[in-house]
Every structure is written in C-alpha cells, then in structure tokens.
Amino acid sequence: MTSIILNAQEFAVNDGETVLDTLLRNRVAIPYGCRAGACQACLMMSDGEIPDDCQLGLSKERIQEGYFLSCQCEPEQTMQLQFPALSQEKHLATVVEKTQLNPRTVRLRLSCRLRWRAGQYITLWINDRTARCYSIASVASLHYFIELHIRIYPTGAVSPYLLNTIKIGDQLAIQGPYGECVYDPKQAQQALLLIAAGTGLAPLLGLAQDALSQGHGSAVHLLFSVKRHKDFYGISELQILQQQYANFHVTLACDEAVATLTPPPELPATASYSAVLHRDFAQLRGTKVYICGGDDFVQRAQKQCFMQGASRRDIICEAFINFSPSEA
C-alpha cells in the first residue's frame, strides 16, 4: 500500500484511490470541483516522481514545476505533497448582468481584466474550496463582458447560489481561461458544423459569432439540441444572427419530437439531433465539426459524425462534466 505525506502527516492510500480521495477521506481541507481534471481546482505539487496521466492539460511550465491534478493521481509510490499558491492566478470579476433565460438556465455577464477567446472556459469559485467550470459565450473583440450560461440544479452546491444569492455588483473569483474549443481563422473556407446540447450552446454561440465577425467565408451551421421544448433558450439571438449573416444557419432538434408532441410554432424542432444529422448532414467529409454538451451526448454525436464522413482531426469536442444534481 502506498501513502502520501502532507504537512508532516502520512496518509495511507487505498487501492484505486486518488490523492484527492485519500485527502477527503481523512478530512483534509482541499479545494476541488469537477473531479475529472478539467477545472484544475485540485492542483497540488510534488518534488518526486509524478504519474504522467495526472498532468494532462497542464502547461509545460506547471509540469516542470511539479504540479499535478490530485483528482487524477493514483500514487504508484510514496509522494511528498504540498499545496501550491494559486491566489495570484485568480481574478476578481464583477457581475454586470444576471438574466434567467429559461426555468433551468441563468446567464451571468462578468466584467474582468482578462484575456480570453470565445469557446474557452473558466473556473468560477464561490469560496476557497468550491469551484465549477463554465464555457464563455462572448467574443472579446465584440463584448466587454464574459458571458456564462449556467444550468440550474435546485439541490446543487454552486448553481443555486449563483441563481438566488449573487446579484449585480457582486464579485466572484475566476481562474483561467482554459480550453481549445475556439475558432481558427485558417478554417475560413471550411464549412463549420456546430452541434450543441443544452448549455453546450454557450461555447458554440461564442465560436459562431467569432467566426462570422472575422468574415468566415463558408457555411456555418448550428444544430441546437434539447430534451424538452421548454429547455430551449437564446432563440431570438440566433435568429438575429441568421438575419445578419447569409452563411449562418440554425436547426433546432428536440427529443420530445420523437414522442410526436407538437412543438410551439416559434420552435419548429421536429426531430432528434441524430435524425437531423442523418437528414441534413449525411456527408461530412471536409467539414469542421464542433460538439459541446454532456459527455454521453458528445460521445454519441462524435461517433455519428465520424460515421458520416468527418475525419477525426476535424472533430473538436468539449464534454461537460456530468455532476449529480446534489453536486452541480
């Protein structure tokens, strides 16, 4: 059995446990968020040997300095640990707008001196221990604010606080940005297919606006999928973009349509996203595909796009962490 040493205390690591699991089991206060290596809230340092798979996504500088993701690290030998000083990497952001977009989604707009690209994500902290990742829907060259679309879970640890407690003028600590789900101007003559599920719309709305504002020369198709018609949001904004740019096209998809429910006239979603892909995008060879949403959705859509001709290098995915309702 291996062990970890922190602040002169030694803790035994059970089989299959990560460093984070071990510390939490022993009631050691450690910040964490997604438990999947995305938010980087649980970063720790070691001057010894570190397993390679717990440093994925970190910068070369951090890897060289001995940083690792404690939620991904299953120690192979005794490790001497220390907490990094991350306070200088956090930025204060001021809430400048808060709007409920539908019963399950709230939009926050934050003002912050930060460089970002549409489609990246930030880690948002509500206290020293609790953080979550949210994608950026705004474009730095067009907007002064960072826009986040937040799914509300009534019993969650973060989203109810953002919905019910945070108000305009309040400040939040954010970290980042991270991620590579961004527009590349080198793709200007390549057709783009953006497939979003739920709040996966956020990064792809930002990416679409970024591409269009830079004069993207080929078609940009956005396929927006939800489980129920009442989960749609941002439709008027998408319609305005369609009116402004002749090469931008939006298709709505809804799982409820499969059960032959009649959608509202303003939401003509008549099929599931899978059926829409088969119907309207049967041949994807040469198309750049971006897919954002829950992990299960992303995996299914990625497989279908590959089977319909998109090359693996042309499929960019951003899978959201599937928190349980009590954690979100």
What's the arrangement of secondary structure elements?
Blueprint: E1 3-6, E2 9-12, H1 19-25, E3 43-46, H2 60-64, E4 67-69, E5 79-82, E6 90-102, E7 105-111, E8 121-125, E9 131-135, E10 145-151, H3 159-164, E11 171-178, E12 192-197, H4 201-213, E13 220-226, H5 235-244, E14 248-254, H6 273-280, E15 288-294, H7 295-307, E16 315-320
Parallel strand pairs: 1-5, 12-13, 12-15, 13-14, 15-16
Antiparallel strand pairs: 1-2, 3-4, 3-5, 6-7, 6-11, 7-10, 8-9, 8-11
What does this structure look like?
The protein is an alpha/beta fold and 328 residues long. Helices cover 19% and strands 30% of the residues. The protein has helices at residues 19-25, 60-64, 159-164, 201-213, 235-244, 273-280, 295-307; strands at residues 3-6, 9-12, 43-46, 67-69, 79-82, 90-102, 105-111, 121-125, 131-135, 145-151, 171-178, 192-197, 220-226, 248-254, 288-294, 315-320. The protein has a six-stranded antiparallel sheet. The longest helix has 13 residues, at 201-213. 39% of the residues are buried.
